[in-house]
Amino acid sequence: MSADRFTSGPPEGARADWTIDQGWARYSPAEHRVWVTLYERQAALLPGRACDEFLRGLKALDLHGEGIPDFRELNARLNALTGWTVVAVPGLVPDEVFFDHLANRRFPAGRFIRRPDQLDYLEEPDIFHDVFGHVPMLTDPTFADYMKAYGEGGLRAMKLGRLHNLARLYWYTVEFGLMQTSKGLRIYGAGIVSSRGESVFSLEDPSPNRLGFELVRVMRTPYRIDDYQQVYFVLPSLQRLLDDTLQDFGPIYAELAKAPDIPIDAITAGDKVFTRGSQAYAQAHAV
Ligand code: PHE
Ligand code: FE
Predict the structure, then answer these.
(1) Pocket of ligand 1 contains residue 149 by CB under 6 Å
(2) Which residue out of 152, 162, 235, 243 has the highest number of ligand 1 atoms within 8 Å of its CB and is therefore the one to mutate?
(3) Which residue from 247, 217, 242 is spatially nearest to 232, judged by alpha carbons?
(4) Which residue has the CA at smallest separation from atom 8 of ligand 1?
(5) Residue whose C-alpha is closest to residue 98's, from 161, 158, 57
(6) In angstroms, what is the span from residue 125 Cα to ligand 1's centroid?
(7) pTM
(8) What are the φ/ψ torsions at residue 236 (nearest 5 degrees)?
């Protein structure tokens, strides 16, 4: 996602919009092998767990198990489908830079790949999370429109001082969203599909709550960045996500300013409950 710990401009070597060349020719054989290992693990796990839109996108982009994708080839396919492109950035970028890219259908992706000893856990998003996790969903026209609208909404939320609320929407949809389908619950969130452990945990573990998606409810719910989620929100469809977010958030932000946060593990009267979680995992891992 984005970070706002930067006060000055882009780092040395980056353009004014923080983009850099991917420099695909510079990846080492060992780096390509990390991609292949991660790709093969997830490709084996995701059929029957990820939603059809994700699996279709993965196929359409040919994010082959042969190595780190070259953005020039990836973009030729992606741009033809939904007008999106992937641009390389040095790491996390400031919020307004991030939102401006999204609003212009550019997805900023890290260029580096995790080390072989970091396959299961990483603090900063790398190219596997950013590309394997995020880009397949950008081939879906509805989701593609949502992400563009989110970028515009982010710039507006910053001006209105409600970015912390809007960031929760990103977290519980783009990163950790589940969807209800005729075949059962499926994953569409990038943070889940790029994680071996959470691909199973999010759907199958009895610990987390799984609750129906409600826009304001989600924006009142804090999230955790250090471990598996304690609650997942389930969308009835991607169209519902786009429709809900196309409304004017002005009145919603006014409402949120008066509404207290909802504890991360709470189930409230209005929630549609898919799973009432035991929270056993969170309790066992509490510090
Ligand atoms: N419609 C929102 C607003 O008026 C913007 C937005 C769009 C937010 C899409 C999130 C996702 O601010
Ligand atoms: Fe992400």
Answers:
(1) yes
(2) 152
(3) 217
(4) 153
(5) 158
(6) 24
(7) 0.96
(8) -75, -30
